[in-house]
Design brief:
The complex is a heterodimer of chains A (171) and B (250). By secondary structure, chain A is mostly helical. Chain A is 43% helix and 0% strand. Chain A has one domain (30-163). Chain A is extended and about 70 Å long. The N and C termini of chain A lie far apart (60 Å). In chain B, a hairpin with a 6-residue loop joins strand 2 and strand 3 (110-116). Chain B has one domain (2-248): Alpha-Beta Plaits (2-Layer Sandwich), CATH 3.30.70. Classes of the chains: A mainly alpha (171), B alpha+beta (250). Chain A binds chain B through residues 61, 63, 65-72, 77, 80-81, 93, 95, 118-125, 134-135, 138-142, 144-146, and chain B through 1-3, 44-50, 135, 137-139, 143, 145-147, 170-177, 179-182, 184, 192-193, 196-197.
């Protein structure tokens, strides 16, 4: 009984190892060619961008829609301007369904659907200057000139109000 | 560097405006003809949030529109890329602005005017929206936040101006500055991307002799002065919506 069970376990382990060997263990390289022609470095370090670009885009989206802030640092339009070529190598338009599209290279591997491009342009306007790009790390992000760093110091009364326990609060 | 370029551009524009303002002061009366710059633009830095200090609006002189506003509608189409949906029928096709012909039944007097979102101070479309997608920005611009829009089309029903339309089919190759997509409602947003960048809306640029764009809150803006001089009518003024788009000659 025990030996039969261990046989099954062994067979399962072997099958799993075979499955792993059949897969590529590393993600495919992202298509960075277009961006590298234009800039030395992205708006944030690469590791930061890989992990957190969706949060930045979401934050920028609300700032733009609700408050009309149109800084370039974390704008989707600027991502596309720098990272995506308007056409494929053969001159036909490049869309986000194509494997060559910068976003798709990674999203296809990760199995994450991109909803952005159902509405947003997935490639730069052809009429636009192909060498156009904004300055990296300059005052193009709104947190450089306002927000956390420019927040006013709390007054003494405010500090006291926060420090004091609220009436009726749980002790 | 690019920030400096923007400043340089703004400086030039403000200087140009100064010139027009002087001309307007000299020639009292027929201000509409003289104001070729077609009004004031925003000078807000790109990294500052909009405030309610300004309220954008426009005055359209229908008597000076030789084509009844068709040119303005065409400019809007070109700017935002709407109206060429291949798989939608005529009733389904989107319209951000349209030319409406009005005829008096008795006298047969008839004229045309461009009708788009009137950017109400009390917008019915915002009242009825279940998700908060239909919104009024602090500076008075009414727009659809398509990230939140679920396509229920309540706002289309609520709007007395038939300004909103629904995208019935999947789109591609949208304009980078004007995202549009299937399943969402859309309408004139007064070229919000152009206003934020210190430019005039596309339709105003297309008809600079007939339209004045500017700040309704500022009593010294060309728009407010002209409205004070010659007046401006709201469509369906009886609804008390206090529209941002006014008409002369209707």
């Amino acid at each position: 009984m025990t030996s039969k069970f261990s046989n099954i376990l062994l067979a399962a382990a072997l099958a799993f190892a075979g499955l792993l060997a059949g897969c590529d263990s590393a993600p495919p390289p992202t298509n960075l060619a277009t961006a590298k022609q234009k800039a030395e470095q992205c708006v944030e370090p690469t590791a930061e961008m890989r992990r957190n670009h969706m949060g930045m885009l979401m934050h920028q989206r609300d700032a733009t829609m609700l408050e009309g802030i149109r800084t370039k640092q974390h704008s989707l339009k600027e991502c596309v301007n720098c990272h995506v070529a308007p056409t494929k190598d053969d001159g036909t338009p490049l869309h986000y369904g194509d494997e060559q599209h910068f976003c798709t290279t990674c999203h296809a591997y990760a199995g994450v659907k991109i909803d952005c491009f159902q509405c947003h342009a997935d490639r730069p306007e052809v009429a636009q200057d192909p060498n156009y790009q904004h300055t990296v790390g300059s005052a193009e992000g709104h947190h450089f000139t306002q927000g956390v760093t420019a927040a006013a110091e709390p007054t003494a009364a405010e500090v006291q109000m926060v420090a004091q326990p609220q009436q009726g609060a749980a002790k | 560097m690019s920030q400096n370029r923007v400043d340089e551009y703004r400086r030039k524009f403000v200087m140009a405006l100064g010139g027009t303002a002087a001309a307007v002061t000299v020639a009292q009366g027929f201000i509409l003809r003289e104001a070729n710059a077609a009004g004031e633009v925003s000078s807000r830095p790109l990294d500052k949030a909009v405030t309610s200090d300004k309220r954008w609006g426009m005055l359209i002189d229908v008597t000076k529109l030789t084509d009844g506003g068709a040119g303005m509608v065409e400019a809007c189409k070109k700017e935002h890329g709407w109206g060429n949906e291949a798989d939608s029928d005529e009733a389904q096709k989107t319209h951000w602005a349209r030319v409406v012909k009005v005829t008096d039944k008795l006298t047969k007097n008839s004229f045309s005017l461009p009708v788009m979102c009137q950017h109400c101070e009390q917008p019915p479309c915002v009242d009825v929206c279940p998700t908060g997608a239909s919104m009024k920005r602090a500076d008075g611009i009414v727009q659809v936040n398509k990230h939140l829009c679920i396509g229920c089309r309540y706002c289309m029903m609520a709007c007395p101006y038939k300004a909103r339309s629904f995208v019935h089919e999947a789109l591609h190759d949208q304009k980078p500055y004007s995202p549009r997509g299937m399943g969402t409602v859309e309408a004139c947003n007064m070229c919000i991307h152009r206003i934020d960048n210190g430019q005039l809306p596309a339709c105003v640029e297309a008809a600079p002799d007939a339209v004045i764009f500017g700040d309704l809150n500022d009593p010294n803006s060309t728009l407010s002065k002209t409205l004070k001089d010659i007046g401006g009518k709201q469509i369906r003024a009886d609804l008390n919506l206090n529209t941002g788009v006014r008409y002369h000659g209707i």
